């Protein structure tokens, strides 16, 4: 493997105040891949995304993006490097319309999608373009949250539980969008409890437990990893 990882994480530790949440997380994401972090509640999946983004400022270890050390890049600068985050709580502006939400994010990196390109990808956002954030369904909010990040021109998308609480038909639509983005070369790091969904969109899995990555494997090995997954996920 001569390909350089797009995202390279080694020995990542992070704290919430005095509470030590990550104990040395190691993984790589290669260009164009969709990689999923799985593990039971509280093992540090969300915290890993927050530490990469600089939302958690107390962190040590190495985070390299496109070969550059971004371990100390603060939250307000990380998008300029090309990393975008869609948090579980989505972070859209509830009082603004869909279109205002889409017009707001500045294009911080080259390659940001235009509003028309967003509407091609998410036709239902175009139909709802005058609706306020508060009037959107959970699925529409999730799509708007993803769309906002795509506007900014990032090349790595961090998605935290994008399917949580959504109807199966919407989950399927989000899966289609992720496959379209993958076809365009987007790289995705996904946190997902829904392993069946993840299996449809991911190239590889990393299994987390107790603030560490235990193991990584390609999606093709999912069936033979069933026992390990069951034990670690407790499902
Ligand atoms: P979940 O699916 O529940 O979000 P997770 O694997 O994403 O699980 P994290 O949310 O990353 O887990 O939590 C990792 C650890 O950090 C847990 O022990 C959790 O209790 C703790 N933690 C998370 N958020 C905070 C916070 N804001 N303040 C203090 N501790 C936190």
Automatic annotation (TrEMBL):
The UniProt GO MF terms for this protein read: ATP binding; ATP hydrolysis activity; branched-chain amino acid transmembrane transporter activity
Q: Supply one GO BP term.
A: L-amino acid transport
What Pfam family is a match for this entry? ABC_tran
**Classification via CDD domains:** ABC_TM1139_LivF_branched (cd03224)
Give the highest taxon in the source lineage: Bacteria
Q: Record's InterPro entries?
A: AAA+_ATPase (IPR003593), ABC_transporter-like_ATP-bd (IPR003439), ABC_transporter-like_CS (IPR017871), BCAA_Transport_ATP-bd_LivF (IPR052156), P-loop_NTPase (IPR027417)
Where does the ABC transporter domain start and stop, copy by copy? 7-235
Which keywords belong to this entry? Amino-acid transport, ATP-binding, Nucleotide-binding, Transport
State the family named in the UniProt similarity comment for this chain: Belongs to the ABC transporter superfamily.
Protein name as it appears in the record: Amino acid/amide ABC transporter ATP-binding protein 2, HAAT family
């Amino acid at each position: 493997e001569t390909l350089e990882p797009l995202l390279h994480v080694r020995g990542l530790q992070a704290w919430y105040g005095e509470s030590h949440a990550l104990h040395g997380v190691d993984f790589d994401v290669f260009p164009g891949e969709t990689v999923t972090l799985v593990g039971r509640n509280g093992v540090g999946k969300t915290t890993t995304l927050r530490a990469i983004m600089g939302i958690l400022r107390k962190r040590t270890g190495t985070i390299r993006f496109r070969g550059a050390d971004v371990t100390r890049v603060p939250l307000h600068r990380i998008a300029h490097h090309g990393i975008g985050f869609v948090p579980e709580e989505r972070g859209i502006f509830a009082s603004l319309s869909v279109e205002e939400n889409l017009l707001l994010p500045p294009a911080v990196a080259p390659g940001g999608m235009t509003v028309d390109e967003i509407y091609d990808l998410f036709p239902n956002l175009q139909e709802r373009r005058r609706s306020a954030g508060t009037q959107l369904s959970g699925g529409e909010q999730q799509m708007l949250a993803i769309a906002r990040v795509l506007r900014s021109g990032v090349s790595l998308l961090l998605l935290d539980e994008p399917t949580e609480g959504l109807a199966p038909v919407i989950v399927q639509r989000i899966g289609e969008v992720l496959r379209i983005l993958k076809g365009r070369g987007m790289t995705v790091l996904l946190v997902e409890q829904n392993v069946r969904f993840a299996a449809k969109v991911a190239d590889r899995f990393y299994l987390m437990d107790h603030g560490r990555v235990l193991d990584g494997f390609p999606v093709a090995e999912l069936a033979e990893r069933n026992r390990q997954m069951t034990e670690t996920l407790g499902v």
